[in-house]
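re the bet — no i am not wrong, look at it urself. input seq straight from the record:
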Amino acid sequence: MMTTGDGPEIGSVLGDQFRDNPREILVELLGLANQPQGMDRLLERLVVFLLEHAGCECTAIRLRDGQDFPYYHQHGFTPDFIELENSLCALGANGNLLLNENGDVMLECMCGHVLCGRFDPTKAYFTPRGSFWTNSTSDLVAVATEEDILLQNLRGRCVERFESVALIPMRSEGRTYGMIHLTDTRKNRFSPDLIALMEEISSIAANVVARKQAEDALRETNKRLKLLSDTASELLTSDNPQQCVRHLCEQVMDFLGCDLFFNFLAERSGDCLRLNAYAGVTEEIARSIERLDYGVGVCGCVARDGCRIVAENIMDTPDERTWLVKSFGVQAYACHPLLSQGGRVIGTLSFGARSRTTFSQDDLTLMKTVADQVATAMGRIRLLEEQRRLYEREHHIAETLQRALIPPEVPETLYGYRFAVRYLPALREAEVGGDFFDIFDLGDEKIGVLIGDVVGKGLPAAIRVAAARYTIRGYAYLDPRPARVLTLANRSLCKDQPAETGMLTAFFAVIDARLGAVTYVNAGHEQPLISDHRGIWEELGNPGLPLGIMEDADYLEDSRRLNPGERIVMITDGITEARKPGPDLFGVRRVRECLTRNLTSSIEDMADCLLNAATDHAGGQLQDDAAIVVFEQADS
């Protein structure tokens, strides 16, 4: 146990739980991370968790926000310290942001080095994983030489106030999400074992943040699409769309965080615009602009020219067209023309904000879509064109989300084993499917191979896929026994959602390259097939209970050798249930026949042929997502 001359034993700060059961701490963290809660609540509880297990005075989490990493939650730091140290962006003499050769904002201090992956593993104050820690900043600075370039960026406030400092990056799949910051005014508060534990905690936290951010993005996209769908539905079914514009635009205004909107319509005489609907200004102001000439103000210029105008930082702009909205205290304003099918301007729709100076591209896209919907409803025209454009947008979003839930890179070979994967989303009606797979390095020459299928479609299924994949992966890193992994994952998933909406199937195998063996467990999934060099295919294992149904379910695993010349093929029911309209499924028999015909082909060709055969049987378009994973020994 490490001690100091005038301080307490370091181990005493951590307590018996860390000394005896560091794995239980990580299991506790996984349980915390898998509880249903928002990002803010999760990170708030994570700070408390760190405080309990790190035994230091101050803990904090920095989280990525654009190109900066401000503090998201903290405990123990003073308000003035947080205010002074919150931003890591380097500023020039004139206050402008300093950029590196790649055009990215430069980050200051040792925090910036750690977050950007700038470290020297030969230095005692860095770990091989890029964390920085010291038990005495005063001693470290005192012995620093001119060659210690990385130490020259330590900001004085951190050095002056704290002796023990640890900066642990939060990284997942090559992306930095933030950093854990631990400090203490006393010396010798940390040990190598504690820092190693904090790095494991940071890795899990990064995976959880990645999952939460993906879930938040999916929910935000779903809200945006629902808003557009509801707006279009009400406008196109209303007997008088002009009267429902205010109600709908107020919903859009609230969603965007705007403070006012104006809807002008062109008079039939064509000599001016008439105010049809508005919100955010007094009736007196509305009466004063009830009629607006073409070319007057932003809206008049948009109606005259038929082009959108986006005015930002209005209080500092010399643009004369903004004089009217500037008098309303507006700082950001966007006005879109309402166009008929033939391109004639029939009015304008605009939104303004007093509390922000700019709009995001997503904001402008939403405004444009609403303006188009209003124009369509006003004349009952452009209906088919608008539906096609909305479908293409939703289709693109669904495809993007689908790709985000599939591993970006799968190793072709690992520890002497060769892998081939195929994934084909059905993307019917722009829905996100529930099939998933994963192949990942567990270390110690072991490989995790996962395939599964979530019940349902759309946003709930996509969130469930993300939760299942990261939960199984997280438990596998702690204990790579397949039965133990799925038993723990099932308990976490059962707590998350009810069985009627949360059920999923999964087959999880662990390859031990040193033993040439495969250990596996099946939770209600399609049984994989294993072949020998004679072309005899056998089903692997017996399906157990799907995940997410019974919290106390136990799963049993089995093992067998994978000899040279043998292959294992894992599939989802999108293959076996491929069919044209009618009862004739592709089925397991056709799967076996296809695999037998391609027994001497490479595993890549075998996977391609199986996917193509199922697709052809379905008439060229699968009705469900399909995933295939094939693996064998590389020297076979």
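see?? The two ends are 50 Å apart (CA to CA). told u. also The first helix runs from residue 10 to 20. so pay up
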